[in-house]
Design a protein that fits this description.
With 971 residues, the chain is mostly helical. It has 36 helices and nine strands. It has a domain of 260 residues: Alkaline Phosphatase, subunit A (3-Layer(aba) Sandwich), CATH 3.40.720.10. It has a seven-stranded mixed sheet with strand order 5-6-3-7-8-4-9, with helices on both faces. The chain has a two-stranded antiparallel ribbon with strand order 1-2. Strand 5, helix 7 and strand 6 form a beta-alpha-beta unit. InterPro entries: Alkaline_phosphatase_core_sf, Phosphodiest/P_Trfase, PIG-O_N, PIGO/GPI13. One of its GO terms (cellular component) is endoplasmic reticulum membrane. Its main location: endoplasmic reticulum.
Length: 971
């Protein structure tokens, strides 16, 4: 639809030169060519005809503004925004999120460890038959790893503690400490390479098929070891999996394997779904106890059994690495012969186990390598576990010191190579202070003198501690040049978007650039590229980085300079001063941004957002009394009160983080695991959402369009009903109503059927409603209703019943907000409050700005196995369902009843919505960089920045989707 320039909704700004304007051309007198009795065109009265040249005003739009063209231009602006934000976040993360250089070198039997060291090496140095570097102690090994499972205080898993106390020379039990972050992939990397994780690797939890570093598995393969592995991923088939794989392999196929790796996921699934205190956890631990007992009875004296957990879990079953329970697991080693030694009298009580010195997870790598007679992986920083080399009598100091010398010689070789790779003078200078060779005696070492061996052992322990602390400090070095570049790009992007929002009402959003503007952009590119080269060391960056930074900043410069934005803003502010709603939107956004400077405000962000929304509700009550219509005043007051009541309702089921204890009590999981709530909430959702939609949009739902009618009267209610059945089956499964093998199989099939059916019905129903074949009359309100309700149904489907209830309340709040702002001409407060509502419901759906709150079970909603890319997308949708639904609901807030003018206000509102999130992301990045040495950096500030950055990109993508769909479907 084409709209003439006289439409007062389109403001025209003077972009001509001052020399083109004469004082008499803008006189307030009625022009002489207007005859008496005729109505003068206000545009021609107050503006000279020369300025009405359409090429000057709209870059060749010929005085007409197409909403289709307008939407396409808005899409281009949002695409520019997402590119700018991506580049800014990339460079900030590159300098802020810690990473380490990966050395691709590998250890080998035939390679001497260090010059001058061979006189202390074993005569078996180059022998792969009897052992590499030192004689192997075991021919075979069975390694069973699991999730969070093997805490000895569970009465259900008793064999670990019983064997360790009753047969101390056959079994040893340790607290097993993981270095955070404790995501699964990072822990498996640490358990195979022996190196420390860094924060930036935690995001790779879904893509870990390739391990490029030298690792334990590669060394076993190089030594000719035959490996077998299997995965038991289902919650109810641990026994079945063991019967089919592990026990027969040990008993009847001895010649087919040297090392078996078994990775059990059943306990992890129980932890995520039910929590560690649920009876199902005790049942699974009893299953594991029976499995381990069977393995103990099956192995021979030349086989080592290792049982370990890769991480712990908190009381809700999550694991990110923020608390002690999340980083502590258990290591248990067992052999049929008397082998393990102890420096102290072996503890006989469980309390003594808890006080026993802990073993770091990286220590298992050199221990298993030397016990199995293979080289220690090149990047390993761990030290051998002393109980595995002291001998059964506890006095074999010669073997222990030899193992430590071999391990630390490998550490020193890694140390030397890393120093060369870094090419850092300060790094090399510090290397001299930790030189390994100064710990080695100049003369031949007497391995019979235990006092000398004990002294050397303690010195080597001291050396390893220094090296480990050194690399922990090296891998927390921030690249300030990249951090500053990222912050500058984010700030420039936010400023450019702010200027664009202020001048949004002109028709042509992206006019053509003049030659002068292009020259300025080129000069900016060259200058910024040279600055990048000057401040960033060549070995720390690539040439492409400078090109990306220069191109991004020059694009922002072009974007700003090709408009006479400051002049437009000056005209805009004179014609329309900021309202009280504008001031409130700005104040709330800035206040929340300032709060990111405080760890307390960041920890209690959910309560801060709750307070801001309650304040907005009070303001709407006060504003509702300004009209003379008592009925409207009463309706506004009731809507405001209902909005505040709903805000308070979602705050009743928080997910508390450790820093909030004991002032906060987590009720989200407690209510979510209560069968009454789990069964009731999905049914209420299926009833109330269609009902509320009919009440709010009754006239728009009653139409002759088959597609629209079918979606709102059949498709959406049916999808919600199938979702209800799905979660009812899940609840029945939790309380054990479907016991038995055949019932379990039927339950699995029905789970998948109803889950996939919900998705298919939602896609088919909404797609039919949006198709022109089925829909002939499509106004903006109806069009937005279809899109937003589809997103709402999908988000409820991927969330738990408690999360779905929270999202339903969000929908009701948006409907209340729409009615409250229905007669307002302000388009700023709506998208701003939507951002706050999205943030509130991020917390109320069981999430927080910590890694451990990620609900990984959402990856299995479509199938029982991981499927790429759907599983990661489901987890993302589950995590950010609140902000995503709030963003998609913005058109319902902005599109007024009876509005047929198109999508012009919606595009501007999305720009404001993106601007709010960009300010929050910029603030989180600024304060995280300022507080980079803060004690709680990785517990509080870094996760909040990751959340802000992810949300910003997601909102950018949603703005692109809405504006693009609008451009395609606008007539």
């Amino acid at each position: 639809m084409w709209v003439p320039m006289k439409d007062p909704s389109i403001k025209i700004f003077n972009t001509a030169k001052r020399s083109d304007i004469r004082e008499d051309s803008v006189s307030n007198r009625t022009p002489s060519h207007i005859k008496p009795g005729k109505v003068a065109d206000p545009y021609k009265v107050f503006m000279p005809e020369k300025l009405l040249d359409p090429h000057r005003l709209f870059g060749g739009s010929y005085g007409l503004c197409s909403y289709r063209l307008y939407s396409f231009q808005a899409t281009k602006i949002f695409m520019i925004d997402v590119l700018v934000h991506t580049v800014g976040l990339y460079f900030f993360a590159k300098g802020f999120l810690l990473s380490r250089r990966v050395l691709e070198k590998s250890s080998a039997c035939s390679r001497p460890l260090l010059p001058g060291f061979p006189r202390y090496e074993s005569p078996h140095l180059q022998s792969t038959q009897s052992g590499c570097w030192m004689p192997r102690s075991f021919d075979k090994a069975v390694v069973l790893s699991g999730k969070d499972a093997y805490q000895p205080f569970h009465n259900a898993l008793t064999i670990l503690h019983e064997k360790a106390t009753q047969e101390p020379q056959n079994a040893v039990l340790f607290p097993f400490i993981a270095d955070p972050p404790t995501t699964t992939l990072q822990r498996l990397k640490g358990l195979t390479t022996g190196t420390l994780p860094t924060f930036i690797e935690a995001g790779a939890n879904f893509a870990g098929s390739a391990l490029l570093e030298d690792n334990l598995v590669t060394q076993l393969q190089n030594a000719g070891k035959r490996l077998d592995s299997f995965l038991v991923a289902d919650l109810h088939t641990v026994d079945q999996g063991v019967e089919e794989h592990l026990i027969p392999l040990i008993n009847h196929h001895q010649d087919e394997w040297d090392v078996i790796f078994g990775h059990f996921l059943g306990v992890d699934h129980v932890g995520h779904r039910f929590g560690p205190a649920h009876p199902e956890m005790s049942k699974k631990l009893k299953d594991m106890d029976r499995v381990i007992t069977d393995v103990v009875n099956s192995i021979d004296e030349n086989t080592l059994l290792v049982v370990l957990g890769d991480h712990g879990m908190d009381k809700h079953g999550n694991h990110g690495g923020e608390t002690e329970n999340e980083v502590q697991a258990t290591l248990w080693m067992y052999t049929q012969r008397r082998y393990f030694g102890h420096l102290l009298v072996h503890p006989q009580e469980l309390a003594s186990y808890l006080n026993k010195s802990a073993v770091y997870q990286i220590d298992i790598v050199p221990t298993l390598s030397l016990l199995l007679g293979i080289p220690i992986p090149f990047n390993s920083l761990g030290s051998p576990i002393k109980e595995a080399f002291l001998g059964a009598a506890g006095d074999n100091w010669g073997q222990l010191v030899r193992a430590y010398m071999l391990s630390f010689a490998q550490i020193e070789r890694f140390h030397q190579e890393y120093s060369i790779a870094e090419e850092n003078a300060r790094h090399a200078e510090e290397h001299n202070h930790t030189n390994f060779l100064r710990y080695i005696p100049g003369e031949e070492l007497d391995f019979q003198d235990q006092e000398i061996l004990k002294t050397l052992y303690h010195e080597l322990c001291d050396y390893q501690g220094k090296i480990l602390q050194r690399y922990k400090s090296i891998w927390v070095q921030f690249n300030m040049a990249h951090i500053i570049e990222g912050l500058v790009i984010l700030l420039s992007g936010a400023v450019a978007l702010l200027l664009r929002v202020c001048a949004w009402d002109q028709c042509n959003l992206i006019p053509s650039a003049s030659s002068r503007t292009i020259k300025m952009g080129t000069a900016a590119f060259i200058a910024i590229y040279l600055i990048h080269i000057a401040i960033v060391k060549p070995e720390k960056s690539r040439m492409s980085d400078g090109v990306i930074v220069g191109a991004t900043m020059s694009s922002i410069t072009l974007f700003i300079c090709q408009f006479h934005l400051f002049g437009m803003i000056r005209v805009s502010t004179k014609s329309q001063m900021p309202t009280s709603w504008d001031i409130m939107a700005i104040a709330l956004t800035i206040l929340l941004s300032i709060g990111f400077a405080s760890n307390s405000y960041t920890v209690w962000e959910n309560q801060t957002v709750l307070t801001f929304l309650a304040t907005f509700g009070i303001c709407t009550i006060l504003m509702s009394n300004r009209t003379l219509d008592r009925r409207k005043n009463m309706l506004g007051a009731l809507l405001s009160i209902s909005f505040m009541v709903l805000v308070r309702m979602v705050s009743l089921s928080p997910y508390c983080r450790e820093e909030q204890l004991p002032s906060c009590v987590t009720t989200y999981h407690r209510l979510g695991n209560t069968m009454g709530w789990r069964l009731l909430i999905p049914y209420l959702i299926a009833i109330l959402i269609p009902m509320a939609t009919r009440i709010a949009f009754g006239s728009d739902l009653i139409s002759q369009d088959l597609g629209v009618w079918a979606w709102f009267h059949i498709g959406m209610p049916m999808a919600l009903c199938f979702n209800t059945v799905y979660w009812s089956l899940d609840s029945a499964n939790r309380i054990g109503w479907l016991e038995g093998r055949h019932s379990n199989m039927l339950s699995k099939w029905l789970h998948i059927f109803f889950s996939q059916s919900t998705l298919v019905i939602a896609i088919a129903g909404s797609g039919m409603a949006l198709t022109s074949k089925w829909t002939t009359i499509m106004n903006p309100v109806r069009y937005n209703m279809i899109i937003t309700t589809f997103v709402l149904v999908i988000s409820i489907w991927v969330s738990s019943p408690m999360g779905g209830g929270s999202l339903s309340i969000l929908y009701f709040q948006i409907l209340s907000l729409r009615k409250l702002l229905n007669h307002s001409r302000n388009y700023t407060i709506g998208p701003t409050i939507a951002a706050f509502l999205g943030t509130l419901h991020f917390f109320s759906t069981g999430h927080n700005a910590i890694l451990s709150s990620i609900q990984w079970e959402a990856a299995y909603i479509l199938s029982h196995d991981l499927s790429y890319p759907w599983s990661p997308l489901l987890v993302i949708l589950n995590t950010f369902a609140g902000p995503i639904v709030a963003a998609f609901l913005i058109p319902l807030i902005i599109t007024r009843d009876g509005n047929t003018r198109g999508m012009h206000p919606v595009a501007k509102s999305y720009a404001i919505h993106v601007l709010v999130y960009s300010v929050w992301a910029l603030s989180a990045a600024v304060w995280a960089s300022v507080l980079r040495r803060h004690l709680m950096l990785y517990a509080i500030f870094c996760p909040r920045f990751l959340m802000a950055g992810a949300l910003l990109l997601i909102i950018d993508v949603i703005a692109i989707i809405i504006s693009l769909i609008t451009a395609v479907n606008t007539k």
